[in-house]
From TrEMBL:
Domain of life: Bacteria
Gene3D superfamilies (UniProt xref): NAD(P)-binding Rossmann-like Domain
Protein name listed in UniProt: Xanthine dehydrogenase accessory factor
Organism expressing this protein natively: Halopseudomonas aestusnigri
NCBIfam families: xanthine_xdhC
Matches recorded under Pfam families: XdhC_C, XdhC_CoxI
Region listing for Disordered, in residue ranges: 256-290
XdhC- CoxI domain location: 16-78
Amino acid sequence: MNRNLRWFEAVADCEQRGEPYVLVTVVGVTGSVPREPSSKMVITGEHTWDTIGGGHLEYLVTARAREQLAASRFETVLEHFPLGASLGQCCGGSVSVLLEGQPGSDAQLVVFGAGHVAQALMAIMGQLPWQVTLVDSRAEVFPADLAPNIRALHSDDPVGDAPVLCRGRHVLILTHNHQLDYDLCRALLDAGDAASIGLIGSQTKADRFRQRLAHRGYSAEQIAGIRCPVGRSDVPGKRPMEVAVSISAELLSFGTSSQSRGPRRGVSWPQLRDLMKHEPETPQQPVETK
């Protein structure tokens, strides 16, 4: 992670990686202040980028932002800070800041196989708020320009790694080897805790795999948990990008927990009205901001 990013670069980076963050903007000032209106910074649970002036003001704003993140309160909040003795600053002015919480995404996907379809799919997933792990035993097939939210994992034993790697995650099996596909299916069904399993292939392949799995003693319910052919049937085409579009559309239809957190309300009109009121030029007593 680059610690030298400007605030707008940090926003883009957090969005691509799906990391929750708070965008802080100075929206109003009176008197002598360390930074002017529209100054911004970005705050995550561990890092900050850019500055709204430093000092105890920035320390308090960072603490407030991290309280929001820790409580998963992705809301828009106005805070007002008189720069007096209570903040250890003697500027004599005051600063109003807007904190905009962004939830990022905890949707996670593991893709086995880095062939043509997977590479086309990575071009799409790199633009979406998913955390993706691309797994292959062939180090030379990984694309060189993967997006920040995609991790390439070279594994000499993808079947052995699958149970731990895929726990609670959506899984796509897109390898070049039918036997490897089958072994991955068995490993994931044995583990039983993947969020979903999609397998690339024709209807003939799907029927054959179902028969083999049933012969191995897997239940009809377990076998039905494997989507094959993977992707939406109403998205036609067999080119790698067409198949990738079909698969990504199916993944998006699942939704994510960050999408199901409910509507986020912005700043209320009374808050905006109070902020827009003209403040007297005489110094005010520090007030609590809780």
